[in-house]
């Protein structure tokens, strides 16, 4: 066995400035220091300029009375409430339209993407035309078009289209009856959540059972029965309250019931149709990336085209679809800020009114930035978790 000498290259002492580990830590420390110094300079300079101009700073204004109306609110709100509650209302409206947009765009985009691969020439060309039309026109133009069509296609409230004295459609929106508030409704909501949790557990058990025995279990129908059945059972146990709040024309508009406003409809329609065109291409490319032998093997097993797509192709394509799909979900959330162009009271609209009344633009812009950053990071974290969960694991 050869003995290495003390002066061999393996035992040569490395100078600190040549050590890649030390050098890496030094470079990172310098970058962090520069970023910290830049942040300190910007903050102190901004505070000094605000003080020089005698402009108030801080977030004390959030507890002051807002004094402005919000046309669409998921929670109780009046102009006597605070700016903090007005901003919360706008945030909830943003989350509502973004959440519904993600769900509907995913469903429609998947159907269009699969339709583009159909052997039916006419269906494939219709889906291709849909994708090219919506993907190559700016979203803002679609929002203007949909809002103009909805607001001008229907008459005013006094001449509203009446369906069985229950549904009233006008340029102010679609009014329809809803159940009057009752103490049993929160319990029904808990029943709905319990049904969703039960459906998830049932679906997992069904997959394990099928893997062990080869016998499929109708987990989709059983889960749907749980989700719908539990709230109905709670409603029946609570005495089946059936009092309704009906819309009635009083003055220049309807009161009672609830309304789907044209601004919300135009925004949701624009987000869904526009984003689904991109999702369709993601789904199509994910399926085409699979080996052709997968579809041939499914056909050899006697599976129909729909069964092969649902049981063989789409589950494998998900591993390719999920990462770019995350970007589209983030785009839906951020593009919802275009709601201000058609008058929908989202987060940006509420904060803009707050800026106009308080003059504290920096604080309010920071609120918008933090809100969108938090929602985007939450969506990314969930999608990353789901992507890891469906990833192939080496044995």
From TrEMBL:
Residues 91-383 form the ABC transmembrane type-1 domain. InterPro entries: AA_ABC_transptr_permease_3TM, ArtM/GltK/GlnP/TcyL/YhdX-like, MetI-like, MetI-like_sf. The lineage of its organism: Bacteria, Pseudomonadati, Pseudomonadota, Alphaproteobacteria, Hyphomicrobiales. Its main location: membrane. Keywords: Amino-acid transport, Cell membrane, Membrane, Transmembrane, Transmembrane helix, Transport. Coiled coil: none annotated. SUPFAM superfamilies: MetI-like (SSF161098). Belongs to the binding-protein-dependent transport system permease family. HisMQ subfamily. The chain crosses the membrane at residues 25-43, 97-117, 184-205, 217-237, 264-283, 365-386. One of its GO terms (biological process) is amino acid transport. This is Amino acid ABC transporter membrane protein 1, PAAT family (TC 3.A.1.3.-). Pfam families: BPD_transp_1. PROSITE patterns: ABC_TM1. One of its GO terms (cellular component) is ATP-binding cassette (ABC) transporter complex.
């Amino acid at each position: 066995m050869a003995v290495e000498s003390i002066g061999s290259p393996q035992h040569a002492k490395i100078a600190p400035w040549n050590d890649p580990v030390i050098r890496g830590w030094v470079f990172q420390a310098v970058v962090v220091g520069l970023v910290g110094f830049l942040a300190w300079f910007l903050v102190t300079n901004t505070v000094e300029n605000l003080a020089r101009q005698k402009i108030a700073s801080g977030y004390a204004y959030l507890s002051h009375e807002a004094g402005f109306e919000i046309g669409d609110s998921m929670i109780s709100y009046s102009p006597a409430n605070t700016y903090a509650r007005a901003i919360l209302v706008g945030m909830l409206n943003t989350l509502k339209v973004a959440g519904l947009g993600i769900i509907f765009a995913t469903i429609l985009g998947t159907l269009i993407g699969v339709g583009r691969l159909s052997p039916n020439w006419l269906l494939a060309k219709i889906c291709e035309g849909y994708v090219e039309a919506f993907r190559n026109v700016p979203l803002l133009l679609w929002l203007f078009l949909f809002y103009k069509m909805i607001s001008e296609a229907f008459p005013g409230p006094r001449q509203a289209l009446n369906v069985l004295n229950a549904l009233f459609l006008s340029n102010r929106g679609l009014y329809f009856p809803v159940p009057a508030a009752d103490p049993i409704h929160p319990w029904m909501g808990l029943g709905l959540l319990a049904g969703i949790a039960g459906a998830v557990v049932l679906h997992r058990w069904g997959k394990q059972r099928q893997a062990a025995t080869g016998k499929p279990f109708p987990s989709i129908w059983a889960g749907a029965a749980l989700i719908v059945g539990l709230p109905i059972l709670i409603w029946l146990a609570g005495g089946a309250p059936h009092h309704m709040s009906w819309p009635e024309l009083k003055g220049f508009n309807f009161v009672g019931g609830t309304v789907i406003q044209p601004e919300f409809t135009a925004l949701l329609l624009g987000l869904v149709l526009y984003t689904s065109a991109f999702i369709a291409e993601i789904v199509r490319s994910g399926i085409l990336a699979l080996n052709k032998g997968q579809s041939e093997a499914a056909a050899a097993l006697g599976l129909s085209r729909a069964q092969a797509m649902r049981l063989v192709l789409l589950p494998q394509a998900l591993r390719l679809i999920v990462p770019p799909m995350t970007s589209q979900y983030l785009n839906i959330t951020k593009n919802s800020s275009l709601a201000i162009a058609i008058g929908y009271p989202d987060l940006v609209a509420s904060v803009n009114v707050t800026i106009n009344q308080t003059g504290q633009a920096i604080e309010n812009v920071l609120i918008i930035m933090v809100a969108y950053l938090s929602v985007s990071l939450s969506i990314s974290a969930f999608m990353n978790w789901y992507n890891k969960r469906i990833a192939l694991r080496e044995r």
